[in-house]
Design goal:
This protein has 4 helices and 6 strands, in the order E-E-H-H-E-E-H-E-H-E. Helix 3 packs parallel to helix 4. The longest helix is centred in the last third of the chain and has 18 residues. The protein is globular, with a radius of gyration of 15 Å. The two termini are 21 Å apart.
Length: 172
């Protein structure tokens, strides 16, 4: 999540004002653009989009691993959200939206749409409180095995329709 730049602030190189929207359907970017923060869905850490996050900031992975390790005494579980501040106006949101990982013996995808819905609703509240926008990949649709046609309506309802600016990035 990011806070908006002050009025009159220059737009950083590689970013466009046109992608910032106050409501409506999420904006979709291309694989060449890099999100400023990500909703993260995984029972572990090590593949997919989170690798790019870990290369940029160590804090989200360390916080997630600590959150998971100490889960007996905290709120870690399906639908939970953990915000990790990585810069003055920049947070990474770790979302728990899948159970386990996909293996050759899996009976179905690990994605859990109700958990994504719950986590996005929580994230929307945080974003509104902070006056922040949300930048994310197509969460739940890569290694988690979900379908964007099932996730996009959740993003729209829990974030965009509540007035949270959302940009969704395609990650190659």
């Amino acid at each position: 999540m990011t806070r908006p730049e002050p009025k009159g602030a220059p737009v950083p190189k590689g970013r466009s004002d046109k992608r910032r929207r106050s409501a409506g359907a999420p904006t979709v970017g291309t694989g060449s653009e890099r999100p400023e923060a990500s909703g993260r869905l995984a029972a572990g850490w090590g593949k997919g989009f989170v690798l790019a996050l870990s290369k940029r900031w160590a804090e989200p992975e360390a916080a997630y691993r600590r959150w998971h390790r100490e889960r007996a005494g905290n709120d870690f579980g399906l639908g939970a959200v953990q915000l990790v501040r990585v810069e003055k106006y920049l947070w990474v949101a770790n979302l728990v939206g899948q159970r386990g990982i996909r293996t050759g013996r899996s009976s179905g995808p690990p994605v859990r749409y109700p958990a994504i819905d719950t986590a996005l609703a929580t994230l929307g509240g945080h974003a509104l409180d902070l006056g922040a926008s949300v930048h994310m990949p197509r969460i739940g649709c890569g290694l988690a095995g979900g379908r964007w046609s099932s996730v996009e309506p959740l993003v729209t309802a829990r974030l965009a329709e509540r007035g949270v600016p959302v940009t969704v990035y395609d990650h190659d």
